[in-house]
Amino acid sequence: MPRIVSFKHSLELLAALIAGAAVLGVLQTFIFGRHYVIPTLILALAVLLGNLARFGYRGQAWAKHTLFWIFFVLTSHLFFALFFAARPRELLGSAFMPVYGFLFLAFAVLAIQYGRHNRLFRA
Question: What pTM was estimated for this model as a whole?
Answer without folding.
Answer: 0.84
